[in-house]
Specification:
about 200 residues, Rossmann fold, binds adenosine-5'-diphosphate, binds guanosine-5'-monophosphate, 4-stranded mixed beta sheet
Amino acid sequence: MQVLPIQSGATTKECPPQGRLIVLTGPSGVGKGTLMQALLRRHPELYYSVSVTTRSPRLGEINGKSYYFISRNKFEQLVAQGEFLEWAEFAGNYYGTPREVVLDHIRSGKLVVLEIELEGARQIRATFPSALSIFILPPSFPELENRIRGRAQDSEDAIARRLRRAQAEIEAADEFDIQIVNDDFETALNDIEAALFG
Ligand code: ADP
Ligand code: 5GP
């Protein structure tokens, strides 16, 4: 039987050469995905890493674009084969960053952006000390709940799990290089741009 290490992923120090890893993290519903899409529209030269997940697709999500949607068995196989740069379990599903494609883009000098949750972001910080990590904060907890509910894409159970986790995630904001409050969207986007491009 395959025994999975708890919250494992990257464990050894690795040295990315020319490019750089950028980690965007923060609680679910804070607006990371929306900020990321806007950032990619403004900066098509960035490489966005499409994650692998065992979550079911939401309405409008496209396999290979939003995520690679796979079964839990397949995910566990990929973990055992060392295929992830980091991975974590979040709200009952696995999420992971494909290793080789990300390392290839860093080697070719790209800025590679990961949009991932707290445990994965911690793994990346431990493995790639040169990564730039940005934590996105909500203007308030009630506003975070409004955004998760307003997205109207998750079950009540999934919303409750995300909110339970959010408080602990927000308390970890200081672990990261830069904290940005996503209150006014344009301001937050400009702040991210400033962090990336100076
Ligand atoms: P995450 O990727 O962090 O889970 P999303 O990008 O899916 O969050 O955003 C959650 C919801 O919040 C979406 O409906 C999005 O349109 C909305 N949203 C994002 N940024 C803002 C903002 N600055 N003000 C108001 N609503 C926002
Ligand atoms: P959602 O189900 O709302 O798309 O994502 C849930 C959480 O998982 C979000 O905080 C998102 O940033 C995070 N996530 C997405 N992809 C990855 C990944 O590859 N690794 C990790 N650790 N988290 C991810």
